[in-house]
Amino acid sequence: MSKIESGYNKKSLPNSVSKIGGTLLAIGLLLGIAGFLVDSYRASYAYLVSFIFFLSIAVGSLFLVALEYAANADWSTPFRRISEFFAASLPLLLILVVPLFFNTSNLFLWSHAGYVHGDKMLEAKSAYLNTPFFMVRVIAIILLWLFFYWMITKNSRKQDETKDQVLTKRNITLSVIFIPVFAITITLTAIDWIMSLESKWFSTIFGVYLFAGVVWCSLAALTFSAIKLKENGYLHSAIKEDHYYSLGTLMFAFTAFWGYIAFSQYMLVWYGNLPEETFWFMQRWDGGWKFVSILLIITHFIVPFFGLLSYEAKTNVKRLKFMSVWILCVHFLDMYWLIMPGMSRNNHAYSFSWIDFVFPLVFIGILILVFNKMAEKFNLVPVGDPKLQRGLNFHL
Amino acid sequence: MPDNKKLHSVAALFNSVDEIISAAKKTTAAGYKKFDVNTPYPVHGMDRAMGMGQSKIGFVTLFFGLFGAAFIFLFMWWSFAVSYNIVVGGKPFLAVPAFIPITFETTVLFAAIATVVGMLAVYFKLPNNSHPLHDTDYMKAVSGDKFGLVIEAEDKQFDKAKVIEFLKGLGAYKIEDIYYPEQEKFRMFEPKFLLFLAIVAVATSGLTYVTLNKLMYITPFDWMDFQSKLTAQKGSNMFANHEGMRPPVEGTVARGFIPYPYKGQPMPVEVLSNPTIPTKQILELGKGKFLTFCSPCHGNFGEGESRLRGQFPVGPTLHSDKIINYPDGMIYHIITNGQNAMPSYAPQITRHERWAIVDYIRVLQRAQNAKESDLKAVNKESVSNVQN
Q: Where are the domains of chain A?
């Protein structure tokens, strides 16, 4: 254990971190409020894009933590805390969701009684798609996530002091329960928040599509922070490129996975050629959206695929940092591509607006501030974890 | 110790992972290049301890992966979009989304096979797949619970006495000389191995067959093979007459086969005039149909030279003055109606095609009775063709 302690000294992140976070949040809030005042309809969609982006990182990071426990992986233990700190933003979802609740009528056609009335399909769906049940669902899902977040991270932190191995066992049990819960809740999240923007559209693979992006961007957030923190001496000194290589491999894997799922969804709709399914893709091929769609294929699949393919790329710190930032941006683009076309109900041409790009500032600011706060209070390395030494010794 | 044998290497056995890793590190440090480590399971960090660079096999994988993708995509493009167009599901011939799964699978297949075969080929120097380490006590030990390190005689600084000394210094508990086999064995071609391959092939295909065709179809998994639907040529209780197939509505006519009003009547030539203009396309159509339907009895050029060799009344020549002077409608009538021994061809040949045949017969007749002026015209054309 002496080896562990010699490699890690807890220290708070520099002040610049909280400054950056605070500035982003402040500017974002100002512009965001302005956005709602100027065009509350567009702003609700733009807010939703950033909300889902934020949610992706928060709950995706919790999933990564659970995955480590469930798979009994040790290579990722030295930087598991990073994901825990990102997941620490989960409680804020309860507040951040409120602006959306006030704007359900802007977002969802199914929330208009007049629109649903007389439409056989929507009337049949209304047992599920109705505003009260929607809100109950959303809150229940967030609370479920919070429960697992609190339980898992509480055990993890307690272990820093007690070094009690039973806590690891408990977390394994919790994680094994959380993973199927996550599968169901992330599917419902995808259906409720994104798929139902088009009240009549359906795709059974949609939850998996969101899942692929969620894990992808959480890995990117983890990779970027791990490298940055290690470079500046905030992590354990024994972390080396073998660890980065594994993170790079996972990002690469999820690049391919996303491509696989995205294509599967497209191909089935294309093959079936049923108007009730194809219109969703047609919307994204109309007007300027065509270029966004093509951009998404290139930036979401082709560039990261070849950018992360080689061994050299996965061990090159610069390349990994670049690709993780890239992935975070592209996941935002993906959410944008999923959500924004639903806004223009009659005219599907792409229109640009500054409102679309102010909310990410708010949410990124929050992620940074929460992370900073957590790093102040808790160790960035789970020093009491029995798997830590093995993780630090990890070799390819 | 046999002298006639060629030394391959000196092999040392160790008891633990830590020992083998430190041994590998020290061997690298001592400057040995041609040495190898054998362990019962993959030991993490071994590559680096042995000072190995990145394997180049990845390039083989990449090349064959891309090759597989390009090959299968071009193949599908050529067969579906160029060579033989079939409409599938109303999609375009070059249906890229439909090609992608196959391209993907083939990429993986080529890449995987090339990697395995490439690795085996390099490592075993195929087809000679006998390695001197095979069947040695050393190999038996390292596929059990020991860890081994071999320094090959081909190494530049190999000196047997020194190497043994060195390995002892590393803490090896047993050291063994490894010799090349007296004669090279091509184990791949041993009857036992080939028999084994054959058995595996038969067994796997048999198992696959049983699984895919029998096991997966155990009730209730009938994969929609049995549906309550109407089947062609099968009875059904859905209709009063218990027939599954519905007769076409009375008076239904197949496309291109509108009934002939002069069936069984003498020729109504006046009313029948040729609606086609003998363009090249029409003549090509007529030629094709003539060769298919008429030539067996009337000969390839309509000269009455039947290929049937007397098994059927020989069709007369179509170059008689009688036929030359027949109006188009009369020949059409004969095709449609038949004449004495010649049956009617109305069910096989559409109206349009019948007229095209008539046009083609006119061409044959003109060719058989060419005038000088025709020859000149033909010559002129071929001369200008040559000049061009």
A: 12-380
Task: Looking at the structure, tell me whether residues B165 and B55 fall in a common domain.
Answer: yes
**Cβ <8 Å between B101 and A266:** no
| Burial class for A172, CB neighbours closer than 10 Å (0-12, 13-18, 19+) | middle
Q: Is B66 on the interface with A (CB under 8 A)?
A: no
pTM of the model: 0.73
Residue B225 lies in a domain: no
Q: Are residues B122 and B203 in the same domain?
A: no
Report the pLDDT value the prediction gives residue A2, as an integer from 0 to 100: 47
Distance from C-alpha of A385 to C-alpha of A155, rounded to nearest angstrom = 10
Output the pLDDT for position B4.
66
Q: What is the rounded average pLDDT of the residues A123-144?
A: 94
Residues B69 and B54 in one domain: yes
User: Which residues fall within 8 angstroms of residue A173, CB to CB, at 6 or more apart?
Assistant: none
- Distance separating alpha carbons of residues A244 and A255, to the nearest angstrom: 16
Residue B376 has pLDDT above 90, yes or no: no
pLDDT digits (tens, 9 = 90+) for B235-249: 888 888 888 888 888
Residue linked to tokens 């091509």: B186
Interval A289-340: pLDDT, tens: 999 999 999 999 999 999 999 888 999 999 999 999 999 999 999 999 999 9
Please report, in angstroms and rounded to a whole number, the separation of the first and last CA atoms in chain B: 85
Give per-residue pLDDT as tens, A202-216.
999 999 999 999 999
Give the model's pLDDT for residue A328.
96
Q: What sign does the dihedral B356-B362-B365-B370 (CA atoms) show?
A: negative
Which residues from chain A sit within 8 angstroms of residue B91, using beta carbons? 271
The C-alpha angle B70, B71, B73, rounded to 5 degrees, equals 65
Q: Which of A75-84, B81-90, B139-148 has the lowest mean pLDDT?
A: B81-90
B236, part of any domain: no
C-alpha distance from A309 to closest chain B C-alpha (Å): 10
Q: Helix A80-87 and helix A359-377: axis angle, to 10°?
A: 120
Is B264 in the A-facing interface, judged by CB distances under 8 Å? no
pLDDT interval class at B359 (50, 70, 90): very high
Claim to verify: residue B138 and residue B174 sit in the same structural domain: yes
Please, are residues B241 and B247 in contact by the beta-carbon 8 Å criterion?
Answer: no
Cβ separation of A273 and B98 shorter than 8 Å? no
CATH of the domain at B261: 1.10.760.10
Burial of A86 (0-12, 13-18, 19+ CB in 10 A): buried
pLDDT in tens, B135-193: 888 889 999 999 999 988 888 888 888 888 888 888 888 888 888 877 766 777 889 98
Same domain, B21 and B53: yes
| Contact flag A396-B98 (C-beta cutoff 8 Å) | no
CA pseudo-torsion sign A131, A134, A140, A143:
negative
B201 with B125, same domain: the answer is no
Subunit contact A267:B101, Cβ cutoff 8 A = yes
**Confidence band (pLDDT; 50, 70, 90) for A92?**
very high
Per DSSP bridges, beta strands B7-14 and B147-152 are: antiparallel
- Do B144 and B195 belong to one domain? no
Mutation for testing the A interface, residue in B39, B52, B54 having most A CBs under 10 Å:
B54
* Residues B136 and B257 grouped into a single domain: no
Counting the structural domains of chain B, the total is 3
Look up the domain containing B120 and give its range.
Answer: 7-179
| Residue B228 belongs to some domain of the structure | no
Which residues in chain A are closer than 8 Å to B98, comparing Cβ atoms?
267, 271
